[in-house]
Write a structure and sequence with these properties.
Forms polymers. Pfam families: MreB_Mbl (PF06723). InterPro entries: ATPase_NBD (IPR043129), MreB (IPR004753), MreB_MamK-like (IPR056546). It comes from candidate division KSB3 bacterium. With 339 residues, this protein is of the alpha+beta class. It folds into 3 domains: 146 residues, ATPase, nucleotide binding domain (Nucleotidyltransferase, domain 5), CATH 3.30.420; 101 residues, ATPase, nucleotide binding domain (Nucleotidyltransferase, domain 5); 65 residues, Actin, Chain A, domain 4, CATH 3.90.640. It has 12 helices and 18 strands. A 5-stranded mixed sheet has the order 3-2-1-9-10, sandwiched between helices. A 5-stranded mixed sheet has the order 13-12-11-17-18, sandwiched between helices. A hairpin with a 4-residue loop joins strand 11 and strand 12. Helix 2 crosses helix 3 and helix 4 crosses helix 11. The longest helix has 17 residues. The radius of gyration is 21 Å and the shape is flat.
Length: 339
């Protein structure tokens, strides 16, 4: 009889993100990559959908159905919904196996508080984890980007997720200096909504704002400006309306969050010891995370800092891949664990 369980390692690495949750299994790679959304019936409290299906429902449901994002600014905002979501994703990751209490490594923002850490640990234990180890997201991102984090060399990482931006200078498997900012991809969506409302008196939803950010948004002028038609509710007339929006306008909308991110990078550079700063001048700054995919963000940071800036190819998965690499390297995991 074929053993259906032999492939499974009873260990998981999890990137529990504001925008997306990813799970990595050794020898299998990334087995879960789903939006961090949960839909529930407010009358019966029954879960209706989780992940991709719940995100599709966002903004499209009757009043008895509520679609929530249980994480905000990189940490748990709704404990009950987070545990339901995590339980669903872990079951999805360990299907066809008899192992029900896996050991997990979870990447968390560098600015997380002890109370917020406890919430993450409690959520993982409540859904069946046997042991929970936490590592910082910028460290996981650097490992996933295959930077030489164990060497006495300065490596600067800017990890822009959905809820947080983590900026860190890493050397000898430790963070020499760093800052965490609760401004990232979600805040970009919010300012786009605000801008369109103010300029066109048109109310658009989060999914539309995210579409604008991804298709025509940029941090630095494009070679050829782009345009997109958006639909929403005309606030003056109370009826559906439309506007044609340019990439220049979206860039104008993004000024505030981008300024905050650039200033955090500057502050981290100012706090960096001179000897390590020399390495960063030579090797540059590495961008990762979903927010790093904003067009020309690398050019913007390069212009503001005068340093070389690069974006890794697997920006969306670097954190969970790094957590997975740490999971199978006990010595490294022990060194970088924060809880």
């Amino acid at each position: 009889m074929v053993n259906l369980f032999k492939w499974f390692s009873k260990e998981l690495a999890i990137d529990l993100g504001t925008a997306n949750t990813l799970i990595y299994v050794p020898d299998k790679g990334i087995v879960v990559d789903e939006p961090s959304y949960v839909a529930a019936d407010v009358r019966t409290k029954k879960i209706v959908a989780i992940g991709h299906e719940a995100k599709k429902m966002y903004g499209m449901v009757p009043e008895e159905i509520k679609v929530v994002r249980p994480l905000k600014d990189g940490v748990i905002a709704d404990f009950t919904m987070t545990t339901e979501m995590l339980k669903h994703f872990i079951k999805q990751a360990i299907k066809h196996t008899r192992f029900l209490r896996p050991k997990v490594v979870i990447a968390v923002p560098s600015g997380i508080t002890e109370v917020e850490k406890k919430a993450v640990r409690d959520a993982a234990l409540q859904v069946g984890a046997n042991k929970v180890t936490m590592i910082l997201e910028p460290m996981a991102a650097a490992i996933g980007a295959q930077l030489p984090v164990l060497k006495p060399t300065g490596n600067m990482v800017v990890d822009i997720g959905g809820g947080t931006t983590d900026v860190a200078v890493i050397t000898l498997a430790g963070i020499a200096t760093g800052h965490s900012l609760r401004i990232a991809g979600d805040k970009m969506d919010e300012v786009i909504i605000r801008y369109i409302r103010h300029k066109y008196n048109l109310l658009i939803g989060l999914k539309t704002a995210e579409m604008l950010k991804k298709t025509i948004g940029s941090a630095y002028p494009l070679q050829a400006e782009r345009f997109a038609e958006v639909r929403g509710r005309n606030l003056a007339l109370g009826v559906p309306g439309m506007a044609k929006v340019s990439s220049e306008e979206i860039r104008e909308a993004l000024v505030e969050p981008l300024f905050a991110i650039v200033e955090t990078v500057r502050q981290t550079l100012e706090d960096t010891p001179p000897e390590i700063g020399v390495d960063i001048m030579e090797h540059g700054i590495v961008l990762t995370g979903g927010g790093a995919l904003l067009k020309n963000l690398d050019y913007k940071i390069k212009e503001e800092t005068g340093l070389p800036v690069s974006r890794i190819d697997d920006s969306l998965t670097s954190v969970v891949l790094g957590a997975g690499m740490a999971l199978v390297n006990r010595k490294l995991l022990k060194t970088i664990a924060v809880g």
